[in-house]
């Protein structure tokens, strides 16, 4: 039988090895702790584990001389021995990380690569951290057993230690430690770590990463020695070397890839990038998959660490692999002036030519015969992965491209004037007339698509417009007044975006300036809404009816006033616009300008005779519109011009109620100072106090109460202020109202009482406040009969429990469902 000394020696040896391993790991990660914030935490944990190993080592040594510990140490030794192989494996892997054990040059490169990437894998660090936590918990408990328990309980303590040790037997430890020691898996998703690096990693780590990439490309000892002797001074020099080391045959390919990734309007998938590279822009431009296609690995190889790939989710929640520039500093360098002074200047990038290239790629792709002449389908989109990007963003790139681009202009003209299928396919993929529709409209009939003339006018494509008017589309003539699209016709489409030259062409070609149709009713209203002064002037000069009714704003003056376009307002008034013309959402131009807080426009309209008390529109009058938005200076201007502070009309009933709902304290004070009745009864909320309470505006509530508001006034949607606050869950306002003497059991309003209002919406904190203040839990009223039934119907368990604890009658009859059980069951809350 082995003696305690030999048993303890075996355990001590294993603990010594544990000390060495943790020390080695800690030393390794300390050297790199600036790479990631998590490493500092892991390093500290490794130090803590090392300390526990040392304490256990001392404790085991103390038990070596105790005869009665023989069996204990034997059992502990047997359990510990099962882990010996794994701990030794851990030690071996640490040595591989720290020391070049493999002979020759390739072995050294392999170790360098392993140290550069593997120990910092997110999964590696996360698993290591989890294992450290488990080991620390077990060892700390074991240490307590050995050090703190009395000698009489030694057998029980060692039994516990045995159980703990058995928990980390060979099979379990093998599956956990081997998992994180395993060589990096090529299929491992390390993209989350890459994303984190973009946010948190400094340029220093990027520099180190680039040097490791350079080391990996060395093919022999001399190349390695040269690489190490001539390390670049900074990232600029690093990127210069990388770009200059690209094989001559790949320079154009790499430049295309970098251009596309740096200037794309959104992140591109790998498949989209591959397709973008496959477009040959040489005459005749075409998609050359056979001659220009690269695979994902090929792109990574030729770009020498300048790009990377990351997993993400698309708009439909599907997994997708995107390509991106490896680090923001790469793009910054490529677009900087510094690169122009270096040997890598051929890779310098500027916005205009880069966007010209991208627009060219997109247009060639949309016009690709294999894609554009066939019926659009999901299968076809899968076959042509860049199609949606090209359809949605070609104009974005075109609009900011270089001046004088005849090759691209020809392609745009082809898209609009050639065969109708490419044009219709583009609109089905991305219709700017329907920006809310993000889905591909595969089955949209061509008859439902506005004419190419309409879209050319909307985009301001002067040369395309001329070509369409001169030759038509597919040989057919086009009417300048053709109807179609949300804006009805080409003139309105051009006017809304202020395309002066296009408007001029259309007018010269006989466009009807007074056609009444479309979202804006007329071209003049469209131009006025956008504040396009020159277009407004052109339209007026061509006889546009300045007071024409219709469209979203009903007339041009209200359109300009709504959006605060003072110069257009002045122009329209000078040309005879009716300052008090009625119509539209705001009723009058003055109310429209007041709602937006456009002080200068309000001043112009008042000076030109606008009726300050004109009634109509959403807000009833200008004062209520300004008060609702909290526009203090406009309110002051209107009051100074005689606005009636006490008139009752509009959604809110009066200006004080409108200001109170928005919590605009200064406006409320201003109106009250000008004689507004704090208890005036009208509007959806009935009273200003109820309006402020519904919005949860505690300070406004205090102001109204201080100025004499009736705290229990009955009326409006909620019946009273307390019920309004309770319904919306505004705890502080509820507290203020109760402290000021509000009657919590008063009946009335949509919910009949405050407790019912809070209960039906699950506002448990408000329910608690009301119950603490003595609210009647069994009060009858409302659609459901009582608060308990209302809470039960909506499944508000916490409120139900509160009410039960306060003695509510769970079997009370009344309401639509007669009792709470049927109310809960009807809505599926049977638990």
From TrEMBL:
<dbReference type="Pfam" id="PF17111">
    <property type="entry name" value="PigL_N"/>
</dbReference>
<feature type="repeat" description="ANK">
    <location>
        <begin position="688"/>
        <end position="716"/>
    </location>
</feature>
<feature type="repeat" description="ANK">
    <location>
        <begin position="519"/>
        <end position="551"/>
    </location>
</feature>
<feature type="domain" description="Azaphilone pigments biosynthesis cluster protein L N-terminal">
    <location>
        <begin position="2"/>
        <end position="95"/>
    </location>
</feature>
<dbReference type="Pfam" id="PF12796">
    <property type="entry name" value="Ank_2"/>
</dbReference>
<feature type="repeat" description="ANK">
    <location>
        <begin position="585"/>
        <end position="617"/>
    </location>
</feature>
<feature type="repeat" description="ANK">
    <location>
        <begin position="750"/>
        <end position="782"/>
    </location>
</feature>
<feature type="repeat" description="ANK">
    <location>
        <begin position="552"/>
        <end position="584"/>
    </location>
</feature>
<keyword id="KW-0677">Repeat</keyword>
<feature type="repeat" description="ANK">
    <location>
        <begin position="486"/>
        <end position="518"/>
    </location>
</feature>
<dbReference type="Pfam" id="PF13637">
    <property type="entry name" value="Ank_4"/>
</dbReference>
<dbReference type="Pfam" id="PF22939">
    <property type="entry name" value="WHD_GPIID"/>
</dbReference>
<feature type="repeat" description="ANK">
    <location>
        <begin position="717"/>
        <end position="749"/>
    </location>
</feature>
<feature type="repeat" description="ANK">
    <location>
        <begin position="618"/>
        <end position="650"/>
    </location>
</feature>
<protein>
    <submittedName>
        <fullName>Uncharacterized protein</fullName>
    </submittedName>
</protein>
<feature type="domain" description="GPI inositol-deacylase winged helix">
    <location>
        <begin position="252"/>
        <end position="341"/>
    </location>
</feature>
<feature type="repeat" description="ANK">
    <location>
        <begin position="651"/>
        <end position="683"/>
    </location>
</feature>
<dbReference type="InterPro" id="IPR054471">
    <property type="entry name" value="GPIID_WHD"/>
</dbReference>
<dbReference type="InterPro" id="IPR031348">
    <property type="entry name" value="PigL_N"/>
</dbReference>
<keyword id="KW-0040">ANK repeat</keyword>
<dbReference type="InterPro" id="IPR036770">
    <property type="entry name" value="Ankyrin_rpt-contain_sf"/>
</dbReference>
<dbReference type="InterPro" id="IPR002110">
    <property type="entry name" value="Ankyrin_rpt"/>
</dbReference>
């Amino acid at each position: 039988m082995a003696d305690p000394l030999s048993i303890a020696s075996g355990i001590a040896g294993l603990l010594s090895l544990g000390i060495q391993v943790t020390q080695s790991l800690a030393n390794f990660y300390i050297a790199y702790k600036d790479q990631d914030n998590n490493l500092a935490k892991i390093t500290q944990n490794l130090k803590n584990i090392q300390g526990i190993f040392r304490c256990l080592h001392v404790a085991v040594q103390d038990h070596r001389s105790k005869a009665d510990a023989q069996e204990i140490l034997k059992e502990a030794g047997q359990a510990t021995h099962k882990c010996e192989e794994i701990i030794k494996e851990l030690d071996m892997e640490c040595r591989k990380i720290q020391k070049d054990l493999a002979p020759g040059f390739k072995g050294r490169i392999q170790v360098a690569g392993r140290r550069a990437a593997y120990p910092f894998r997110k999964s590696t660090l996360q698993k290591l951290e989890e294992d450290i936590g488990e080991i620390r918990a077990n060892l700390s408990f074991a240490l307590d057993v050995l050090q703190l328990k009395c000698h009489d309980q030694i057998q029980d303590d060692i039994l516990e230690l045995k159980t703990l040790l058995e928990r980390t037997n060979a099979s379990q430890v093998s599956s956990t430690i081997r998992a994180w020691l395993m060589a990096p898996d090529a299929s491992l998703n390390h993209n989350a770590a890459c994303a984190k690096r973009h946010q948190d990693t400094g340029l220093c780590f990027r520099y180190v990463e680039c040097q490791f990439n350079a080391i990996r490309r060395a093919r022999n000892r001399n190349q390695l020695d040269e690489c190490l002797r001539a390390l670049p001074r900074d990232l600029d020099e690093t990127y210069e070397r990388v770009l200059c080391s690209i094989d001559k045959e790949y320079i154009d390919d790499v430049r295309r890839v970098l251009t596309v990734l740096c200037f794309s309007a959104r992140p591109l998938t790998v498949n989209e990038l591959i397709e973008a590279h496959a477009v040959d822009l040489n005459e005749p431009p075409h998609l050359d998959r056979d001659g220009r296609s690269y695979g994902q690995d090929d792109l990574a190889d030729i770009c020498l660490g300048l790009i990377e790939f990351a997993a993400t989710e698309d708009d439909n929640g599907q997994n997708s692999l995107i390509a991106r520039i490896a680090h923001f500093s790469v793009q910054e360098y490529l677009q900087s002036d510094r690169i122009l002074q270096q040997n890598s200047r051929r890779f310098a990038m500027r916005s205009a030519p880069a966007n010209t290239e991208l627009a060219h790629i997109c247009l060639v792709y949309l016009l690709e015969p294999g894609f554009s002449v066939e019926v659009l389908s999901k299968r076809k989109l899968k076959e042509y992965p860049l199609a949606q990007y090209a359809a949605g963003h070609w104009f974005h790139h075109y609009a900011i491209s270089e001046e004088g681009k005849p090759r691209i202009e020809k392609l745009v003209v082809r898209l609009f004037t050639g065969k109708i299928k490419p044009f219709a396919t583009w609109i089905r993929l991305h219709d700017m007339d329907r920006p809310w529709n993000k889905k591909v409209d595969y089955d949209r009939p061509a008859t439902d698509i506005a004419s190419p003339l309409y879209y050319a006018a909307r985009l301001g494509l002067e040369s395309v417009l001329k070509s369409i008017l001169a030759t038509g589309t597919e040989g057919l003539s086009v009417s300048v007044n053709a109807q179609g699209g949300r804006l009805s016709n080409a003139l309105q489409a051009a006017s809304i975006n202020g395309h002066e030259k296009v408007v001029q062409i259309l007018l010269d070609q006989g466009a009807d300036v007074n056609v009444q149709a479309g979202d804006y009713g007329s071209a003049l209203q469209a131009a006025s809404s956008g504040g396009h002064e020159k277009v407004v002037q052109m339209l007026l000069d061509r006889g546009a009816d300045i007071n024409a009714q219709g469209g979203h704003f009903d007339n041009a003056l209200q359109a300009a006033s709504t959006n605060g376009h003072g110069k257009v307002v002045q122009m329209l008034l000078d040309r005879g616009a009716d300052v008090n013309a009625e119509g539209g959402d705001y009723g009058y131009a003055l109310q429209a300008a007041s709602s937006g807080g456009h002080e200068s426009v309000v001043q112009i309209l008042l000076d030109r005779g606008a009726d300050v008390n004109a009634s109509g529109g959403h807000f009833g009058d200008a004062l209520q519109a300004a008060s609702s938005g909290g526009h203090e200076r406009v309110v002051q201007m209107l009051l100074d011009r005689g606005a009636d502070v006490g008139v009752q009309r509009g959604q809110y009933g009066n200006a004080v109620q409108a200001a109170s709902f928005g919590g605009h304290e200064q406006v409320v004070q201003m109106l009250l100072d000008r004689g507004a009745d704090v208890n005036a009864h009208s509007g959806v909320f009935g009273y200003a106090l109820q309006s402020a309470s519904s919005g949860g505006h505690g300070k406004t509530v205090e102001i109204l109460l201080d100025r004499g508001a009736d705290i229990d006034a009955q009326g409006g949607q909620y019946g009273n202020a307390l019920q309004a606050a309770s319904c919306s869950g505004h705890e502080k306002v509820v507290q203020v109202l109760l402290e000021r003497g509000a009657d919590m059991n008063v009946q009335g309003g949509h919910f009949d009482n405050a407790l019912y209002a809070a209960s039906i919406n699950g506002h448990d904190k408000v329910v608690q406040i009301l119950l603490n203040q003595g609210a009647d839990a069994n009060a009858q009223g409302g659609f459901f009969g009582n608060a308990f039934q209302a809470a039960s119907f909506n499944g508000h368990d916490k409120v139900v429990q509160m009410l039960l604890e306060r003695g509510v009658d769970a079997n009370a009859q009344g309401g639509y469902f007669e009792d709470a059980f049927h109310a809960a069951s009807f809505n599926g809350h049977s638990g």
